[in-house]
């Protein structure tokens, strides 16, 4: 009898066997990368004051809490965020249904405009490899003909609802962060729309090499900000005070983190923090991420002078990241653009 669970998992070991056969060579470096000193609860912020149910003082206090978390942590979690529990549950059901397809079908069905990804083709060692699979979807592609097959006829509607509410939340938070520094949110209205932003549906299969394997290698996000909905399995870790800490899941909250572009634009007031996902040996993990991104030709300048960074476009940044990953196996990011 065919094990359907194994049939749906990507062939990590078959495809990348040489990496795992020599994993003992890299284990010490992976272990040092993966050591966690404890569990943390991210700053929890109630957004109801921003959504019409608070006075000016409450709104200002909420803005200050968001800016403080973005500056001190680079991560925070939000409740009363406007993304309905029902649409998140619907999306989870559709997501599980997609990932339960046999691997060969996921690769060949061209679902969601051929957005399926798995593993790390550029990896040259275990510490550069991500034990995960994902559908990485430009928002503009969701409504296009052929995006979803008849088998997934309800998927398009659910994704469109989720994308709308995630977009509204991302713009609300980005507007708060820019307003707090005395600037207009026009930057996002002009440069970030459904043709530039993304949804990413993630699955982290059980890993026989856990806990030494990354589900997602340590990295920072290259966007303005990311909104994450995760399940209760855990595994998200972030760098705090030069040490890795595990993030305690909160079923009522969405996680928000600052990306590289916001750090550069804010002149390092807001922090894009390194984070990772650790593989689990027994259970699979699911998450959904929304990425607030500008067009590739958008110029990312500093909100004040003197700037710490030279001016660059998002396209320049992405190109440099890809070149670094190809050459060195990891992302260098913002240090490449310091003056």
From TrEMBL:
It catalyses: gibberellin A1 + 2-oxoglutarate + O2 = gibberellin A8 + succinate + CO2. It is an enzyme of class 1 (oxidoreductase). One of its GO terms (biological process) is gibberellin metabolic process. Residues 193-294 form the Fe2OG dioxygenase domain. InterPro entries: DIOX_N, IPNS-like_FE2OG_OXY, IPNS-like_sf, Iron_ascorbate_oxido_reductase, Oxoglu/Fe-dep_dioxygenase_dom. The keyword Secreted does not apply. Keywords: Dioxygenase, Iron, Metal-binding, Oxidoreductase. Belongs to the iron/ascorbate-dependent oxidoreductase family. GA2OX subfamily. PANTHER family: 2-OXOGLUTARATE (2OG) AND FE(II)-DEPENDENT OXYGENASE SUPERFAMILY PROTEIN-RELATED. This is gibberellin 2beta-dioxygenase. The lineage of its organism: Eukaryota, Viridiplantae, Streptophyta, Embryophyta, Tracheophyta.
């Amino acid at each position: 009898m065919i094990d359907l669970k194994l049939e749906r998992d990507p062939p990590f070991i078959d495809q990348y066997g040489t990496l795992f056969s020599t994993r003992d060579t890299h284990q010490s470096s992976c272990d040092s990368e993966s050591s966690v000193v404890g569990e943390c609860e991210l700053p929890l912020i109630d957004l109801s004051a921003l959504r019409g149910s608070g006075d000016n003082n409450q709104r200002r206090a909420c803005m200050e809490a968001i800016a403080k978390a973005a500056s001190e942590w680079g991560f925070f979690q939000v409740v009363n965020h406007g993304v309905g529990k029902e649409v998140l549950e619907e999306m989870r059901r559709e997501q599980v249904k997609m990932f339960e397809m046999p691997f060969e079908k996921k690769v060949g069905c061209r679902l969601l405009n051929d957005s399926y990804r798995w593993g790390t083709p550029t990896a040259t060692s275990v510490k550069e490899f991500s034990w995960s699979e994902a559908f990485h979807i430009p928002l503009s592609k969701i409504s296009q003909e052929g995006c979803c097959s008849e088998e997934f006829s309800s998927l398009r509607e659910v994704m469109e609802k989720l994308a709308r509410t995630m977009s509204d939340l991302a713009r609300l938070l980005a507007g708060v962060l820019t307003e707090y520094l005395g600037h207009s949110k026009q930057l996002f209205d002009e440069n970030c729309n459904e043709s530039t932003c993304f949804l990413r549906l993630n699955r982290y299969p059980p890993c026989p090499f856990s806990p030494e394997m990354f589900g997602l290698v340590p990295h920072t996000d290259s966007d303005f900000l990311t909104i994450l909905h995760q399940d209760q399995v855990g595994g998200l870790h972030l760098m705090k005070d030069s040490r890795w800490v595990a993030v305690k899941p909160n079923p009522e909250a969405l996680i928000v983190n600052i990306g590289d572009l916001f750090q550069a634009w804010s002149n390092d007031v807001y922090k894009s923090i390194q984070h990772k996902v650790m593989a689990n040996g027994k259970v699979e993990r699911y998450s959904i991420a929304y990425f607030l991104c500008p067009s590739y030709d958008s110029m990312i300048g500093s909100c004040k002078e003197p700037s710490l960074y030279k001016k660059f476009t998002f396209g320049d940044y992405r190109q440099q990241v890809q070149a670094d990953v190809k050459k060195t196996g990891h992302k260098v990011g913002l240090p490449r653009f310091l003056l």
